[in-house]
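Encode chain A's predicted structure.
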Amino acid sequence: MVERLYDTQKVGSSILPGRTRDMPKRFERRKEDFICAHCGAEVKGNGYTNHCPECLWSKHVDVNPGDRAATCGGIMKPFSYEKKGKEISIVHRCTKCGVERRVKSVEDDDFEKIIALGL
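Encoded structure for chain A:
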C-alpha cells in the first residue's frame, strides 16, 4: 500500500521539526509534461516546473505548490518579477480570478522576457 506523504511523516521515531500531526504537506512534487495554454510550447516537467520557460505564463491549478487543488483553472499572466539576492521570482496574476502567485525562475526561462516584465 502506498501512503500519501505529509510533513508529519515520521523520521525514525520523531516528527519532523516544526510540524504537527495535522499539518498537511505544503509541497507535492509532480513530474508532469504539459503544453503551454498561452503559447503552445511543449514543456518537459522536472517535478518543479510550474510555468512555461518560453513565454513565462502558468496555469492556476494549485492552492499549495503541487497539490492541484485549485478549481479555477485560469491562465496566469506574468506581470512583474522580484529579485532577492541571486534569486529571481516571477509574479503571476490569474486572468480568471485575479489571484497572484510568485514562482522561482529557472535556468531554462527566457531571461530577456523576465527583465522585460519590469519590477
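The first strand starts at residue 10 and ends at 11.
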